[in-house]
Amino acid sequence: MAQLSARLERLIALESQIAHKTPPPAGEMEFACQPGTLPLLISAPHGAAHWRQGKEKEEDEYTSGLARLLGELTGAHVLYARCQSNTDPNFYRGVPYKQRLAEILDEAPVHFVLDLHGCAPRREFGLALGTMKGRSCPGMREQILDSLCANGFHPQAKGLRSLDVDKAFPALGKKDRETVTGFVWGTLGVPAAQLEINAKLRILKRLSPGEAHENTLADPWDVEQVIDALCSLVFRLARDGRA
């Protein structure tokens, strides 16, 4: 791999601290918080492996590291998976991750939650935005689209610059499934959105053995573009989220 920028090296260092397939030590939680100063929280509930309906689900590699890096670069609050979980925060109701999320939003003046996830490299888009068809962030979806488009991700683009909007991953959930976005908006009344990131835009260096997409590595330039786009989005939402 060619020499990386300081912030990409930092991304790898942060991700290397995630115990993707190891449960937390006794008495400790599988997630951690990174306090911030902006009125926005970045969530990464699938950054480590998790269990859903009796089956282990692969981690969304680099989503926890990316959330932490964005927190450092922007000052956003961060809640992220750091170890393997026996629950799925983006599926089950009343899980510890959501309880801690509610506590943070009660304690800090957070006006928006951006929930990061990872999708497979076979997907025909680079990013996928989920806003429950606009319901989870009323009046703000156009601002999100405007910010992402200004940074190179557009619904009419092709390949990794393509932006899927409320189609593949609308964050709606179902009767027996509650997404983080649905919980934040429906229960806590805070605007939120889900953002899926293609593996080809986030996995710089393989850190988790047995990953299903082990041959997928991102071009460093593409990861830099994602970081730039998300930093811009965080600042935009933090500024406008009070409306």
Q: Could you walk me through the main structural features you see in this protein, from its secondary elements to its overall organization?
A:
The chain has 243 residues and is α/β, with parallel strands linked by helices. It has helices at residues 6-15, 63-74, 96-107, 141-150, 180-186, 220-240; strands spanning 31-34, 40-44, 50-52, 55-57, 77-81, 112-119, 127-130, 163-165, 192-198. The strands form two sheets. The chain has a seven-stranded mixed sheet with strand order 1-5-2-6-9-7-8, sandwiched between helices. Strands 3-4 form a two-stranded antiparallel ribbon.
Write the layout of secondary structure elements.
Layout lengths: L5 H10 L15 E4 L5 E5 L5 E3 L2 E3 L5 H12 L2 E5 L14 H12 L4 E8 L7 E4 L10 H10 L12 E3 L14 H7 L5 E7 L21 H21 L3
Parallel strand pairs: 2-5, 2-6, 6-9, 7-8
Antiparallel strand pairs: 1-5, 3-4, 7-9
Strand order of the largest sheet: 1-5-2-6-9-7-8
Number of extended strands: 9
* N- to C-terminal distance: 44 Å
Strand content: 15-25%
Shape: globular
Helical residues, percent: 25-40%
Query: Tell me about the biggest sheet?
Result: 7 strands, mixed
